[in-house]
Fold:
Amino acid sequence: MSSTTNISNKSKPLQQQQLNNNHSTVNKNNKKKNLTVNNENNNNNDKNNNDNLLKEQLFEKLKSKDERNVAFIKKFDEFGTFTQFEGLTIVMPLLLFTTTITTQNNNTLDNNNTLDNNFDDTQNYFNEFFKELQKLTPKNVHALLPLESYHVTLSGLKCRSHFNTCDLYNDFVMKNIDNLIDFQKEIDQLFFVNDTNNTTLKFTMEKPIENNDQLNQLTIHLKIYDKETENLIEKCSNLGKLKLKKLFRKSKFHLSLAYHLKNNLDLTVEEKREIIKCLNKYFYGKVLEFGRPEVCKFETMCCFEPVF
Structure:
């Protein structure tokens, strides 16, 4: 009996040691888990701090300092000079540096056929167009937009002039920064396939301008050219509705060239006829290429700066 008791008593320290070892192992594992959790928390905190810093920097870039009364915020003055007019929009820039201007023949692209063989690249083509339009357009009737500003709007967002005060506009900007970031990220992922950005959006002039059409604002009305563009525009619009909700309002596709001055002056019959001839010559039947949609800030109607 005594012998059995001694054996049992001898085994107790060993059992206790094993128990202690188990506790030690558990404690080590718990420490590792806690360290991992702490590292994850630190990483998350660092990411949140970086995100907040980026948002603050972005807000500083986007906020308005225009304290004027809304009644005095205009796109241009009575002389056709563009003035401070701030806002946010989503636009697709006209690509001025693509290799050729292509013509539309029976709804197909003919890459070997240009409007005029003297123009071997898009930049020269549009430069010549702009020079001709400048000569034909009276400065006291229309304010011409610079060539570099040409774009198609996917969706207007908001202008400073939509808000009674500068603070209200800035509140709008701050409330929508996260959504705008998410929208642009999704757009970039859609277009940057395999780290390339070769996809362009193709549009063509809806129909020729007639002599009896109104020319209050010089505008080229556009339609989607091909199925690829149609599919991409649909995906972009769906992303806009998903990320920006009611703020996203798909625009009618058009290319703005000039604004009509509010001075009750108008084009003569001859001026109008020559401008229409110019617009049809350079745009009708041509396939225009545009870049991916970009959230842009503008301070005047002459320059649209990508936000991201």
Observations:
- The first strand starts at residue 87 and ends at 93.
- The chain has a mean pLDDT of 86.
